[in-house]
Amino acid sequence: MLVDSHAHLEMDEFDGDREAVIRRAQESGVDCIVTVGVNLEDSRKAVALAERYDMIYASVGVHPHDVKDIDETTYDLLRDLSKSSKVVAYGEIGLDFFRNLSPKDLQIRRFGEQLELAAQLALPVIIHDREAHKETVEMLKGRREGRGGVVHCFSGDYDMAVSCLDMGFYISIPGTVTYKKSGTLRDIVRKLPIDRLLVETDCPFLSPEPERGRRNEPAYVAHTARRIAQIKDLPLEDVERVTSRNARDVFGIKTEAS
Ligand code: NI
Predict the structure, then answer these.
(1) How many separate domains does the chain show?
(2) 221 in a domain, yes or no?
(3) Under a CB-based contact definition with an 8 Å cutoff, are residues 154 and 173 in contact?
(4) What is the CATH number of the domain that holds 113?
(5) Cβ distance 126 to 90 under 8 Å?
(6) What is the DSSP string of 10-67?
(7) Cα 113 to ligand 1 centre (Å)
(8) Do 115 and 125 touch, CB atoms closer than 8 A?
(9) What local confidence, expressed as pLDDT, does residue 256 receive?
(10) Angle, nearest 10°, between helix axes 183-191 and 221-232?
(11) Does residue 256 sit within a domain?
């Protein structure tokens, strides 16, 4: 049993074979997928997908790349979407000072507004941080009470990870942990307690080895879990069980009655 805590199954890349992708995920032991909106349109698609499949849940929000397109109606529409019982988080939101596809000041302002909205909606947040580690931690420290959440595709250093844990956040580990150059991330995984880690694909992006270079999909989260088991010298079953429990806890997803 595995939870892919961060996928983008609603994206066009899956339009040709989405059914098959979902079936392959199930065949690899993935029993729950959180598919994450990056703008209003994709958030709508994510919710529609979650309403069609029991095992899929959705998150709604506007990615830092897309915050330049937020207008006076966007937050109301996202608020409406979040009323679906399949919406379990708000995001992905945050800061991306690597690509800067929206201006920095605007990213910071919209991040603050969306943290506030998530708190009003009582949803945990999914955080995107690229080359904005210091600012991201400051923003999270400064927010009003909220439900905690996940720092997705973690790329900070160990001190940042500890700050996030101290604030009650979980850290989500992507397929990059399998890459040769990701020594720092592996070191962080080694040091952090397993009961604060999640696994994710961020598909269609960031395929883990040995699938690197191909389109990523939820089934491949198994490679990431296996690598984490090696790094932490834990049985694979423990990594699967604990990271799944963590994901279900943070997103408030009940386990299937058994
Ligand atoms: Ni993502």
Answers:
(1) 1
(2) yes
(3) yes
(4) 3.20.20.140
(5) yes
(6) TSGGGTTTHHHHHHHHHHTTEEEEEEE-SSHHHHHHHHHHHHH-TTEEEEE---GGGG
(7) 19
(8) yes
(9) 60
(10) 70
(11) no
* Residue 70 token pair: 């937020």
- 139: Cβ–Cβ under 8 A, 6 or more apart, which residues? 95, 108, 111, 112, 115
Look at residue 257 in the predicted model and tell me its pLDDT. 44
Give the pTM. 0.96
Q: Give the distance (Å) from ligand 1 centre to CA of residue 202.
A: 5
Q: How many Å apart are CA 91 and CA 85, to the nearest integer?
A: 16
Q: How far, in Å, from the CA of 92 to the mean position of ligand 1? A: 7
- Mind listing the pLDDT tens digit for each residue in 33-57? 999 999 999 999 999 999 999 999 9
The CA 237 to ligand 1 mean position distance, Å, reads 26
Q: Give distance in angstroms: CA of 235 to centre of ligand 1.
A: 28
- Ligand 1 midpoint to CA 231 (Å): 24
Domain extent for 20: 2-251
Is residue 258 a part of any domain in this protein? Answer: no
- Where the chain has pLDDT below 70, the residues are 256-258
Ligand 1 center from residue 142 Cα (angstroms) = 23
Cα(42)–Cα(250) distance, integer angstroms: 22
